Amino acid sequence: MMLTSKKFAGAILALFSLPAFAQTVDGPGCKIDPVSPSVGADIPLTYFGPPPSSVDKRLVGPLQLLNSGALDKQAGTITIPLYRGAMSDGRNVWYVLTDTTDQGNAELLGLNYAPKLHYAATGRGVRTATLTKGGILIFDQGTVDFRPARRVVPGAGSSPFPPVAAEPGSVGDSQYSPLVRITNSGGHIYNAPIIAFGATAEQISFPRGSPNYALVHDQVLRIDPKAGTVTLALAPGFSFGKPVLYLSLDASAALPAALEGATFAQALQDISVGGADGAFSAVERLYLALNGPRGCENPQRQGLESALMDGRRPLNILGGIPFVATDYSPLWDVNMGAWTDDAIAKGYRSRLIDEFQFLGMVQGGFMTGPGGAPFGSAGFIVNCPIVFKFL
What we know:
- The chain is of the alpha+beta class and 391 residues long.
- The protein has one domain.
- 12% of the residues lie in helices and 28% in strands.
- Strands 1, 10, 13, 19, 20, 21, 22, 23, 24, 25, 26, 27 and 28 form a 13-stranded mixed sheet that branches. It has a nine-stranded mixed sheet with strand order 7-6-15-14-8-9-4-5-16, with helices on one face.
- The longest helix is centred in the first third of the chain and has 11 residues, at 5-15.
- The two termini are 35 Å apart.
């Protein structure tokens, strides 16, 4: 199977259309949304009260975390503001905002508050911009080329990973990071991934869908510069047993950027990994199963190999998210685990949905790093802002 940019667009639309989360279309292996609490009960769903999260965000229940736009949790999309900035030479920079170190503005704009981003300002980790009249940001550096065609060719036979080819559909220059410090307005850092670059509003206007992926990010489903909005596809996963939806926008290495349909952001390589729970760390950990069970008909389905074979998402496990933990960051230090042959033979391989459940399998010797290597950071970062938790 090979996914080019155009084929990827179709795959994304198929994955995140309404049937993607519908019981009647997909098997349980490709679902994460919880079933009705009325299953097995003696009363109908209408008798149940509001979810506890509507009373206290820290309690169980659905909660939209990125509140800057309209979420369609069934379709797996979010429509958020599209901003226009510029480079110093006048080229347009089209971007979105998802996270910030400014708590007050996070609440005002419906963004995620992510104070750990302060510690991303090492090397090229954070670029700079100046706020000008009219609310326009002038960026000092960092460009993105959207012309490449995303191409992923899984490995042959029963082992699709590593892929034969993995070429990202958008590539940043050596100075591009999605993180931006506004130098003349408080010095706060914003997660501001570029969605389109160097194009006019007319060139990237696709309000009804079918965008030109040679001009816009591969996660774009609809984009309307006149209305100032962009609709982005969301990825399903888990955080401490809670099914979640998140954006996947940038990666510090070409391989994960290609696999995720994200921008290869080289400057993120200057942000340290491996110390997610320590002082001055800008990242949080994400857990990726390499060789989990395959097939949408299998309720245990999970992992990168399955994703390469069926075109669905790998159902990654995120660490701390807002209102569940205190160490959230949209920058995820990917930790990849592989089930051992012994664990598979004994029938222990299954879907994991919790960080400590995953680490318990590692401690028990049932999972290692790829190829039997020691488990730990894979050495790269993915920029995946959290959007919604189902529970």
